[in-house]
């Protein structure tokens, strides 16, 4: 038969209990005429049901300002039960006094089937703290009345251990289950105490130790509890009187992620009289005031530098941070203080070497029970994980302080990484300005910060930062630009800043420790350096030629990109671009010299001691030298007709002085058809060595040149007078190639020319500019025309000739030459004699000369007689190089030809006087 439940109600001292028993027999009435219960064989149980022992109330963080009623949401706990085991043979009178007395006589022991919900949301079982002790109840069986006043005391039962001492019940409780109320903050109130903590209390009680209880009293109006627990990462203290919470303190130990500051999250609730500011009256309520605080127990962390964390120490500037007015966390073991919409920003100081930076950053509280934040909390934090700082130079590697390690950092985006024993802070990405590029290249392109990240090879380094082996393992390129396209570095529009002769242009995808921003694909070790150079340096030029095509990749050590860094000199920062002993090879019209060292480029844009100012002062200096090279026209594979060789061309720029270009060891070589001009070449070279160079500077470039006067020179049979010879090298600052021009006189101002008895003029101009189509204009023209009128006879004589050098569409430069000599005589209209000599010329190179066979046509027209005589004039020759020795009868060469001589004799007999 199921046990029946009986209700015991005693109004005098407010006893309200539900009772049921098991293992008892009902016996006859005793002296009191009430039935008796007798414990049969074996242990009998007496179970007492209690009304709810706890009341849940909302909390607040301050007093109230309201014209209405102050009302908090509250809930009752569930009813509880105490199961007592009674020894065999125990006799209990079935009355309130009999049952209460039996429970408190010291023989009834509390059983394990007991369950109480106190505090609210925790179902607990009271247990004796000492092994072997029992839990007993202590209470009066009859109402307690004050002797003088007659006041009846409220009935309550005290649970204690059988070995308890005064002031300590000697108990502990074991939470069997836990649940939260689901009451949300709103209006004047916040969430109730222990929200989010109850399951932590239950779990820790089973995993570590049970909460100690020094007081546990139960009554019809609610229970009173004094409990406390301290676990490895959490603590709990609870004071409750008559079902109402008086003081609830919970705390969790953890760290502030990602830096790892040890901290304690404290959630304190206490019942206080809180003012209610009503427009009509001032009152107060006994409300639950809740304070939530984050306390940093170790604000300074040292030895924090790691492969991807460039700071030697980190400090949080504060010890206590109130959180009462912020959003309450759902999980006090893991949360973003303030929540994702309005997170608390903690003041942080980081030191790298001698450099300090300060910033505010939200941090995540992570309990010591957890290895790291969950993905969900990280997703809340990551939008706030970037710290913005004034541009500060920071050694982002911390290993020997090489030039590329120090960057001007503007933002730091943090993350964390597991170490096996915890987490360490890392810099996921950072935004930095490259001061070397900003100094060298004008405009806003390099004023704005660029996002970089640490290379994977640096992140995986093991060992402490000061370890020499770890320092040696730092990769040459520790930083990579986050943008796939990299950072454009182009001097093509500002060649004066890169030495004038060379205009580097590339996409930097990383920052080298020694070289600064670089295209990593062209660093030594690239599998196909030739292809990598063309890909990286597209658009870059050297002396107007494609830079990638000129770099000799066959030399050792293999060439790399230029170094663009900032260095500290004489306590000042100096920007330096350096590209030394860059070995070059032939490409297009750019050629090595026939003898001597191979072509090389030396570039240094940096600082040097200032000519004026205090000792140690520096000034910017740029020097670029291109050594031991030649320019050939036309470009291979065609045979050259002009070669300009240089020992060196040097561009120099320094503070307070205009840019300057110097040309050393210029040598001009005419080949092929241009050998006719070799004497001009020789005279020009000899005068250049004596005359100084002239230079001019403008906003678009600098030009250096030589201009000399040559009074008289020969070119084959031509005699040239008043020739102005020019050599000009122009280094543009804009996107144009370096150009070299060679000229003798000009189209507008030709030199004077004579050949035999004929006069004329001419000019020669050649200009080469990198891979652009070269310009070639050479012209030598002469002639004479005479008309005579003797009344009875009229005569006209003319002689015209010329030599032109023209560049064909296929790049070849060819010579075109012609001579036309003729005349006519008209005698009284009866006799007419016409003479025309046409000569086509051909150039031969060994020895250099022009030659051709001319055809002389003589037409006789008499009144009754007409005849045409054709005479071969023989070979007409112009010898190249130096002027040939004069021969006394240059025009009688035809006489050595038999047929021509016979025709000539007939003409002389018929018409010569």
Could you give a quick summary of the protein structure above?
This protein has 913 residues and is mainly beta.
How helix-rich are the residues, as a percent range? under 10%
Task: Please work out how many helical segments DSSP would assign.
Answer: 10
Radius of gyration: 54 Å
Question: How widely separated are the two ends?
Answer: 175 Å
Q: Which secondary-structure class do the elements indicate? A: mainly beta
Can you give the mean pLDDT? 83
- Global outline: rod-shaped
The main pleated sheet reads as: 15 strands, mixed
Q: Explain this structure to me?
A:
The protein contains ten helices and 62 strands. By secondary structure, the protein is mainly β. Among the domains are: 6-248, no CATH class; 782-911. The chain has a 15-stranded mixed β-sheet that branches. Strands 50, 51, 52, 53, 54, 55, 56, 57, 58, 59, 60, 61 and 62 form a 13-stranded antiparallel β-sheet that branches. Strands 42, 43, 44, 45, 46, 47, 48 and 49 form an eight-stranded antiparallel β-sheet that branches. A hairpin with a 2-residue loop joins strand 51 and strand 52 (718-732). The termini are far apart. 39% of the residues are buried. The model is unreliable at 880-897 (pLDDT under 50).
């Amino acid at each position: 038969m199921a046990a029946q439940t009986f209700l015991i109600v005693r109004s005098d001292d407010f006893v309200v209990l539900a009772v049921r028993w098991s293992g008892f027999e009902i016996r006859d009435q005793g002296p009191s005429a009430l039935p008796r219960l007798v414990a049969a064989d074996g242990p009998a149980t007496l179970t007492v049901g209690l009304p709810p022992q706890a009341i849940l109330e909302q909390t607040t963080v301050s007093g109230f300002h309201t014209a209405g009623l102050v009302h908090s949401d509250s809930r009752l706990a569930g009813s509880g039960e105490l199961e007592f085991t009674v020894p065999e043979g125990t006799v209990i009178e079935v009355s309130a006094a009999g049952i209460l007395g039996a429970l408190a006589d010291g023989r009834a022991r509390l059983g394990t089937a007991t369950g109480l919900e106190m505090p609210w949301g925790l179902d607990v079982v009271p247990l004796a703290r000492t092994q072997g002790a029992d839990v007993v109840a202590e209470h009066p069986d009859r109402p307690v009345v004050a002797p003088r006043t007659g006041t009846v005391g409220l009935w309550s039962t005290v649970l204690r251990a059988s070995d308890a001492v005064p002031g300590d019940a000697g108990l502990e409780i074991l939470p069997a289950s836990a649940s939260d109320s689901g009451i949300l903050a709103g209006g004047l109130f916040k969430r109730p105490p222990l929200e989010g903590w109850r399951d932590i209390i239950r779990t820790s009680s089973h995993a570590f130790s049970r909460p100690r209880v020094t007081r546990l009293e139960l009554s019809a109006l609610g229970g009173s509890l004094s409990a406390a627990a301290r676990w490895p990462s959490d603590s709990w203290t609870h004071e409750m009187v008559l079902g109402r919470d008086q003081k609830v303190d919970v705390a969790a130990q953890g760290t502030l992620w990602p830096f790892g500051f040890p901290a304690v999250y404290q959630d304190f609730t206490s019942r206080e009289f809180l003012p209610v500011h009503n427009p009509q009256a001032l009152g107060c309520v006994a409300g639950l005031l809740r304070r939530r605080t984050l306390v940093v127990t170790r604000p300074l962390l040292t030895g924090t530098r790691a492969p991807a964390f460039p700071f030697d120490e980190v400090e949080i500037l504060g010890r206590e941070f109130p959180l009462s007015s912020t959003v309450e966390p759902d999980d006090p073991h893991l949360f973003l203080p303030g929540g994702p919409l309005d997170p608390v920003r903690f003041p942080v100081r980081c030191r790298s070497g001698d450099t300090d930076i300060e910033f505010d950053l939200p941090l995540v509280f992570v309990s010591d029970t957890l290895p790291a934040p969950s993905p969900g909390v990280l997703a809340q934090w990551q939008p706030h994980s970037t710290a913005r700082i004034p541009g500060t130079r920071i050694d982002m590697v911390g290993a020997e302080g090489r030039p590329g390690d120090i960057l001007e950092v503007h933002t730091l985006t943090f993350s964390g990484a597991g170490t096996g024993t915890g987490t360490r802070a890392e810099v996921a990405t950072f935004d930095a300005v490259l001061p070397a590029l900003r100094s060298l290249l004008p405009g806003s392109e390099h004023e704005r910060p660029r996002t970089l990240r640490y290379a994977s090879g640096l992140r995986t380094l093991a060992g402490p930062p000061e370890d020499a082996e770890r320092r040696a393992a730092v990769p040459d390129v520790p930083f990579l630009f986050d943008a796939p396209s990299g950072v454009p570095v182009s001097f093509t529009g500002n060649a004066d800043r890169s030495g004038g002769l060379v205009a580097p242009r590339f996409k930097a995808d990383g920052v080298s420790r020694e070289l600064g921003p670089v295209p990593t694909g062209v660093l030594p070790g690239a599998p196909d350096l030739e292809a990598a150079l063309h890909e990286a340096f597209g658009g870059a030029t050297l002396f107007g030629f494609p830079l990638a095509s000129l770099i000799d990749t066959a030399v050792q050590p293999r060439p790399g990109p230029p170094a663009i860094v900032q260095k500290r000199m004489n306590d000042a920062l100096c920007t330096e671009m350096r590209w030394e002993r860059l070995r070059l090879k032939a490409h297009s019209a750019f050629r090595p010299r026939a003898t001597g060292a191979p072509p090389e480029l030396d570039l240094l844009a940096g600082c040097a001691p200032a000519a004026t100012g205090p000792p140690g002062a520096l000034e910017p200096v740029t020097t670029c030298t291109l050594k031991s090279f030649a320019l050939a026209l036309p470009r291979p594979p065609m045979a050259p007709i002009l070669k300009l060789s240089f020992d060196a061309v040097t561009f120099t720029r320094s503070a307070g002085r205009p840019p300057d270009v110097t040309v050393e060891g210029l040598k001009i070589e005419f080949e092929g058809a241009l050998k006719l001009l070799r004497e001009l070449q020789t005279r020009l070279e000899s005068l250049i060595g004596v005359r100084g160079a002239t230079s001019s500077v403008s906003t678009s470039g600098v030009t250096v040149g030589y201009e000399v006067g040559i009074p008289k020179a020969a070119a084959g049979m031509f005699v040239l007078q008043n020739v102005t010879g020019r050599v000009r090298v122009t280094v543009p600052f804009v996107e144009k190639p370096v150009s070299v021009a060679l000229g003798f006189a000009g189209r507008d101002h030709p030199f004077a020319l004579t050949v035999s008895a004929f006069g004329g003029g001419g000019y020669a101009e050649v200009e080469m500019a990198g891979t652009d189509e070269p310009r070639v204009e050479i012209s030598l023209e002469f002639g004479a025309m005479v008309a005579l009128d003797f009344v009875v006879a009229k005569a006209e004589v003319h002689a015209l000739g010329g030599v032109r050098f023209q560049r064909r569409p296929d790049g070849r430069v060819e010579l075109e030459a012609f001579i036309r000599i003729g005349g006519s005589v008209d005698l009284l209209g009866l006799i007419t004699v016409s003479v025309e000599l046409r000569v086509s010329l051909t150039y031969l190179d060994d020895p250099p000369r022009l030659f051709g066979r001319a055809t002389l046509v003589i037409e006789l027209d008499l009144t009754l007689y007409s005849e045409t005589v054709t005479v071969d004039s023989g070979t007409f020759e112009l010898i190249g190089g130096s002027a040939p020795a004069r021969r006394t009868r240059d025009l009688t060469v035809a006489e050595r030809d038999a047929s021509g001589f016979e025709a000539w004799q007939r003409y002389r007999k018929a018409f010569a006087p």
